[in-house]
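Workshop exercise sheet. Pairs work together: one partner reads the sequence aloud, the other fills in the structure field after running the prediction. Swap roles for the next sheet.
Pair: D.N. / O.F.
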Amino acid sequence: MFGMQLLEISVKDLSGKAFRRIIRNYTNTRFKAIAGGTLVTAVLQSSSAVSLMVLAFVGAGVMSMENAIGVILGSNIGTTLTAWIVATLGFKVKIEVFALPFIGVAAFGLILFKPGSRPAHLTRLLVGFGFLFLGLDYMKISVEVFAKGFDPSHLHNLPLWGCLFIGTVMTALMQASAATIAITLAALNSGLMTFEMGAAMVIGANIGTTITILLGAAGGAPPKKRVAVAHLVFNFITGITTFAGLPLMVRAVKLFVDVSTNGPVGLALFHSLFNLTGVLLFVPFVSFFTRLLVKFLPEHRKNISVYLANTPAEETEAACVAMKNEVIHMLQECQLYALRTLALDEQLVFDDRLPFEKTERKPLTGKELFTQIGRLHSAVVAYYSRIQTQTMDESRTRDLDQIILASRNIMNAAKNFEEIRPILDEFEVSESAFLNRQYGRFRKRLLNFLTEICTITPQQDPKLIHQTILATFKKIEADDNLFIQETVKASAEDASGDLDLSGLLLSNRLFTQASRMLIFSVKDLFLTQKQAQAFDKEITN
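Structure field:
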């Protein structure tokens, strides 16, 4: 589960435009996805590992569910290579042997590379793979005694449905259909079970292997659960259908292989044949099945807007008020995000919990809060577009334009704080006393700034609001100039040349821009059009 978490986080961090394009190119059609799943599983010899990787890709949002199902279908075909290797060569290469080298090499990379850099994300991805494979190996080893002590002679007079059940349970316990198939091939080769019994065991192994992906999706988001359910349904239906037509399928295998003298090869052919047949039968219904899963496992997105949801856009006067109040709410959430970015106590600014967290059992993480702000901005823009379709006078239109501009400024400020966060984290833990002091200065600047703008309310005298905004803006500019002067002076006095001048100036630029955008949003939300224009002239002069 820890390996899954690392994989998903790393995939998200690495999923830039180029990475997303690569993923889409290899899985952008159903048959490409099936072929890709077949090839990767054949190379890794672990359908469980491939299934868990698919969950990570779906959870990271870089693979559609329909294509993910295609990869899962392909993995069922690819995993049959194991039976062929055991049947023909008598051994199986285990991908799990790479687990510790992956972890060791990647751990060294995590020490070597700068946190947050692309090489660091890649090494963390390797660590995720390592723990994933190591975890699979541990689950197999934990039931090794059971596997070694299993006596196939007990199966001699067992009914076929009993073999199906045992194959399912064994695979679910060992988390490896390959292990169950290997035991079955050995028993068949020794003459301890009939070919039909071996075939039933193989069908059970295919059903039992779904437990791995079900565990991987446990507690996950709905898209991951859909993929897990799709895997279960496909393997279960394919298995039960094949079991019902077992005599016919066995007869088809006997046309190509003499199972009385070469049972293991015949069983490997049976394994490939019934998986391929299942894929061919299932492929035409993938789109329909995907829609069905979306219907029964929907994403329950909470309505994050406080004022927009219950105000029809057709009622333009009420809609404008609702939109303004929603953007003020968005401004507060952005201020909270800024406070958490610099690890400041939010109670210094806010007395109560803000709407995003009122129904949550615990505070949102910085990443979750940033995502919610982005979603709220999208909702505001969509609402603005709906109001625009109504007939309004010119003054109302200008008011709306002023409000939507405030929303954009708040969103851009949040993005700046998101970008500055890792830089400031380095300042906090730096061995440089100067950087430590500057980190403290950033915190003090932010707290003073937010304390000032939080005193502004719509009920205040417009002149007082105007004066407060103007004074706050001048303080932002003064702090910016002072920071640049101190940084240049410190750089000139730094004989060692270790001072990260570019990082300092970048962080200050992002911080100052974010502060300006927030003060501009306050101006657009709390000042009239004439007052806002007067303010713009004053700061320009």
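Discussion prompt: The chain has 25 helices and no strands. What would you look at next?
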